Sequence to fold (388 residues):
Amino acid sequence: MNRTMNASLFRPDGGRWRRRLARPAAAIGLCAAALLYGRTPMAANPSPAAPKVTAAADPFAALANAEKKLGKAEEDDGNLRTAAYHYEMVANLSSGPVKSEYTKKAAELRQESKRLGERDFKEGMAAYEKSEPAPAFRALLRSLAYDPGNQVALRTIKDDLIGTSVIPYTVVKGDTLATIAEKNKFEDPSEAWVIGTYNDLGANAQVRPGQVLKVPLMIGVLPRTAVAGAPGAPQEEADEEEAASDQYSATLDQARDLIKSSKFEDASKLADQVLAEDPINKDAREVRNQSNYSLGKRFAEQKQYEAALTAFRRVEPGYQDTRQQLTEVSRIDADEHYSKGVEYYTKDDLDDAIKEFETTLALNPDHPQAAKSLQEARATREKLRQLK
Fold:
């Protein structure tokens, strides 16, 4: 099936050791006593109850929330299949009731998408049988937005509505689908996506100099053969599946070469380009996982722990030992923030110390000293405020 015709293309409306701390946790209390010389000792005056430290959420919660937002936006925009994909990612990143909820939502959206696709397909074929090419063309495009697997709708558009009324066009430097549409006198240049679709490249395809395209002769969005009966030159039949995958394969081959050259960020961007058009492309997902996993490992080795976490969070949880890597890097990064918190504390910079201790607990809720240190820092700050 031509994987370029997905819901994101045809819309119904036309559219994250330095060293570990060698000093025991008790050092904080001693430092505080030294800094507060002449003040009331903390031991003699027990600290007031500090706010309860809340354990951090699952390390995948932020990613799951991002997928929720993407899914909601796509759902609101009528892209039901793409929304279902994002909701399935939420389910994969979650557990318990949330997993069940979003598994169900994704299934419901796919079912609704199929129903709407069948509705528009029937409408389009009825218009086609009545020799009404304009409404047939638009209804069949809408049906493909909901159900890209509808081969009858695809072939009706390509063979009967657009048909053989095409002309060859050799791409020159600086060309885009829009400029090609203008050069070929499309009455509505905003319909330039039809050129990419007709050539099985995708509605947002980037063309390259020397590439030869078949450009449908258009009146508005309709081929002249469908409207005025103009004759067209016979065209060679191409293997549709091969043509649909050529563009993606070339992009992903380039991404794999970048991975071999350790250019992981560039490789990930190329994979994202493919996934923007084909969200369920398994090869693109593998490339994105591999590039971001490798990037996370490199950042971790360079002790850039926050960057490593960002990279690992872009990897699907089940890929290799991603969960283990996230846990380990979060633990090390937590130790880093704890060390910074102690440094701030010894300098009497209590606000920054508290922030660092809070970050420590967000990264590692089981940190052995952070909760106690946070409580002491908050109590010390409160005492200082009372002395002013």
The two ends are 73 Å apart (CA to CA). The mean pLDDT is 74. Residues 9 and 152 are 19 Å apart (CA to CA). The longest helix spans residues 96-129.
